[in-house]
Design a protein that fits this description.
Number of helices of chain B: 7
Number of strands of chain A: 4
Shape of chain B: elongated
CATH class of chain B: Alpha Beta
Strand content of chain A: 5-15%
Structural class of chain B: alpha+beta
CATH topology of chain B: Sulfite Oxidase, Chain A, domain 2
Structural class of chain A: mainly alpha
Largest sheet of chain A: 2 strands, antiparallel
Largest interface: A-B, 29 and 32 residues
Distance between the termini of chain A: 27 Å
Helix content of chain B: 25-40%
Order of helices and strands of chain B: HHHEEHEEHEEHEEEEH
Oligomer: heterodimer
Radius of gyration of chain A: 25 Å
Number of domains of chain B: 1
Radius of gyration of chain B: 22 Å
Helix content of chain A: 40-55%
CATH architecture of chain B: Alpha-Beta Complex
Chain lengths: 277, 252
């Protein structure tokens, strides 16, 4: 963990001139929603496509092909049609009706979601700000490390396109959660909102998606912490071991407008970023 | 409530209202212009409607691909046919002299034709591919009378929207819209590859609609019914296949 936290601290300091920028954010709600809808459509296409292929698990070269013709590729799988010579002594149930329906519907979902994403991304500058790599990031090393981080499922930073910095924030959340004991929670009074800075925007859609999307990153645990009697008080406080200080910091949070407890109620500290609580 | 959330509330409300009214207007327009398929209800309705509407908006008059004579499949596959029974065999023995094609429904002159009459009508031939939804295909030359000729001859009424066609096999019936029914490549076929249409391939008469998949190309046609609504036929989805969970529109 030592290495990880050092890496995190260095990265976050390097990329964060001020506190609001210091907290890496989640992808915009529309990016997350379109992403998971595309994922849903992908698996629908995959499953229904496989079902359709099973009705004739043979592939032909040229314009036409049928069971009277030698196939170019025979998958040697059982089929849902008894007209196909498979060598298996049984026939699978016919699933082409719903499979074809689902296949086309999923394809339309991809079209609709893609249209929405492209229009939204063009109009609000998402592509310009977050997708197109900055000039300094167009290099073999930068692209290489970016690919590696993606393969590790680390999260990208909010800014900088290709450069991935957000990953460390997720690790921070998990680490800090381990550091928070029930005593700590008592100590900070009614601070129950613990959202780990992975949110952006105030859309209800994004909020609804939160719990589902980040359960693998410790975020779900954070949500559990926030489910106390003061749930309305969704000010975000994060405990950070930073530059030798053991302190609580306010976290940028879309719910902070609901009203944060006064700083007097917080355990104070001087963090490396000059935030004095 | 803060100003930001009020603004969000208003813009979201306007967007939702605009979206809902847009969908309502689109639905009315689609209904009027025949872009809603009969199996548009249910979970897969939206995708099916989009597919059918997009095809009809973009490809209403498109032609199915035609092939050269040397591309005709040497080994076409007839697919399996349920036993046709004694009545069929008796008619086959008499060279289908007793076979009738009934044309009824919304026609000025409902009638029935013998196979000989059908063969005496103007012929059209085309070398097209028949593709099964399972994934196999063959190319053949089909010869027959364009369905549009039959509709013209019986005086199809202007309000006809679908042609329902039935097979000698009672479980098989389908329907097509007027875009396909009046299409020049849609035939009542009685010949294949320069010979009589063989019984395994649908003889004496088969509906050949090369813009749609094999299951719409019903064999052993005995009856055409012209109608403006499919609600009264079967479960109301427009065909045996769609009543059985397949898409009514099987455009390629």
């Amino acid at each position: 963990m030592g290495t990880t936290s050092q890496t995190f601290d260095r990265r976050e300091r390097a990329s964060t001139p001020a506190l609001p920028e210091a907290v890496p954010e989640r992808h915009p709600a529309l990016v997350r929603v379109t992403h998971w809808l595309t994922t849903l459509a992908f698996f629908a296409l995959l499953i229904s496509g496989a079902e359709i292929a099973l009705s004739h698990p043979r592939f032909y070269w040229g314009e036409t092909g049928n069971v009277n013709v030698r196939p170019w590729l025979n998958l040697h799988l059982p089929s849902s049609r008894d007209t196909v010579p498979t060598g298996y002594g049984y026939v699978l149930p016919d699933a082409n009706g719903w499979s074809r329906y689902l296949h086309f519907q999923a394809a339309w979902l991809v079209v609709a979601v893609g249209f929405l994403y492209v229009v939204w991304g063009l109009f609000n500058g998402h592509f310009r700000r977050n997708v197109c790599p900055e000039a300094k990031n167009i290099s073999v090393t930068s692209l290489g490390s970016s690919i590696v981080r993606h393969l590790r499922f680390e999260r990208p930073a909010r800014t900088g396109g290709v450069v991935v910095q957000r990953a460390s924030a997720v690790k921070l959340s998990a680490r800090d959660l381990r550091a928070v004991s029930p005593d700590d929670l008592d100590r900070v009074g009614n601070v129950v909102g613990f959202r780990c800075g992975l949110s952006l925007g105030g859309s209800n859609l994004g909020r609804a998606a939160d719990g589902a999307l980040d359960s693998l990153h410790g975020h779900r645990i954070a949500r559990a912490f926030s489910a106390g009697p003061h749930r309305h008080d969704l000010c975000c406080w994060v405990r950070k071991a930073d530059a030798g200080h053991d302190c609580w910091q306010p976290n940028q949070c879309r719910d902070s407008r609901l009203g944060c407890p006064s700083s007097a109620a917080r355990p104070g500290c001087h963090s490396g970023r000059g935030v004095n609580l | 409530m803060s100003q930001i959330s009020r603004r969000k509330l208003i813009t979201t409300g306007i967007a939702v209202a605009a979206g809902a009214s847009g969908v309502a207007v689109a639905a009315r327009l689609a209904q009027r212009h025949g872009l809603i398929p009969p199996d548009s209800r249910g979970f897969y309705g939206p995708g099916e409607t989009l597919t059918y509407a997009a095809q009809r908006l973009l490809n209403r008059h498109a032609m199915a691909r035609e092939f050269s004579r040397d591309q005709i499949s040497e080994k076409p596959f007839a697919n399996e046919v349920d036993p046709l029974g004694n009545d069929f065999q008796r008619m086959q023995g008499a060279d289908f002299a007793d076979w009738r094609l009934i044309v009824d429904g919304m026609a000025a002159r409902p009638t029935s034709f013998s196979v000989a009459e059908i063969k005496s009508f103007p012929k059209s031939s085309q070398i097209t591919m028949i593709g099964c939804e399972e994934g196999w295909t063959y190319i053949a030359e089909w010869t027959g009378v364009p369905l549009s000729y039959i509709l013209d001859r019986v005086g199809a009424l202007p309000q006809v929207r679908y042609v329902v066609y039935r097979s000698f096999q009672p479980d098989w019936w389908e329907s097509i819209d007027m875009s396909d029914a009046l299409h020049p490549q849609t035939l009542i076929a009685h010949g294949m590859n320069g010979a009589e249409l063989p019984v395994p391939f649908g003889g004496p008469l088969r509906l050949c609609v090369p813009r749609q998949l094999g299951y719409k190309n019903v064999k052993y046609i005995t009856r055409l019914t012209l109608t403006d609504s499919l609600k009264a036929f079967g479960k109301g989805t427009g065909g045996a296949a769609s009543d059985g969970g397949y898409a009514w529109y099987a455009g390629i």
